[in-house]
Each structure stands twice: as C-alpha cells, then as structure tokens.
Design goal:
This protein has one domain. It is 55% helix and 0% strand. α3 packs parallel to α7 and α5 crosses α6. The relative contact order is 0.17.
C-alpha cells in the first residue's frame, strides 16, 4: 500500500513554473510619419537604395543586402517567376520587428513592404535611430 501511494501521491509538489510575458510595443513612428524625422525622409526620397543600405548596416547586416531587392525582380522574371515582395526589405522589417518586440504580423509586413517601399525604409531607419539612441537605465546597488 505504501508503494501505491508513491506512484499516485495526492499532494504532489510541482516545481514552480515561470512564464515570460512579452510586452509588445508599437513602432516608434507611423509608416507615413516622415515629418517626425525630416532628414530620414529626405534621405529616403532622394536616394532610397542608399537609405536601405544604411538601415541594413545599422541592423548589423551586410550593407549591400537591400540591393538584392533591385536585382531580384529582373532575375526572377527572366525565369518566369513573378515576384512582388522585396525579399531583403521584408526580411529586415520582420527581423527588426521581432528583435524589438514590435506589434505586427507577417501579413502586415508583406503589405507594408509591397505598398510603400520608401515609407517602409524610412520607418525602419527612424526606428533604428530611436532604438540605438535610447539610453539604457542601469541600477547599481549602494555599497
């Protein structure tokens, strides 16, 4: 009878479980909030490929990665494969959104990357500037 109680204890203690709840934030600025940062807006308007390469570098990726978006439609259409989603732009957008836990979805990222490429790159640039310049708060215990 003692062994039966060992197999099926009624008051079994479970190890404490900890759950991490991700607190998702919004984008620092809206998709069409170019007036929030005129420099980024002008940079994107006058030389969007240059801005895209800058965003890629700020995010720690190869600076030339966004140039794949320029070449990919020509290459894929040569093989008869239509492509409307810029792959590098979409990948960077998803990566930034996931790294900084920004609200959104893959469907919204695809739509944003396809509908307004310039606005998307400008928003990503503003977001990285904001995230990279936000000071970190460090609490040190008193000695």
């Amino acid at each position: 009878s003692f062994r039966a109680k060992e197999k099926h204890p009624k008051n079994m203690m479970l190890p404490s479980q900890s759950f991490t709840i991700a607190m998702f934030s919004n984008w620092n600025s809206g998709l069409f909030s170019c007036c929030d940062d005129i420099k980024s807006c002008c940079y994107g308007f006058w030389c969007c490929p240059c801005l895209a390469c800058t965003v890629s570098g700020l995010f720690g990726q190869n600076h030339c990665l966004p140039l794949c978006d320029i070449c990919s439609p020509a290459v894929t259409s040569a093989f008869g494969i239509p492509l409307c989603v810029p792959p590098a732009g979409l990948a960077l957008r998803v990566g930034i959104r996931q790294k900084y836990e920004i609200k959104g979805s893959l469907c919204k990222d695809i739509a944003t990357s396809c509908v307004c490429v310039w606005c998307s790159w400008c928003q990503l640039h503003r977001e990285l500037k904001y995230r990279n310049h936000t000071p970190a708060v460090v609490n040190q215990p008193k000695k």
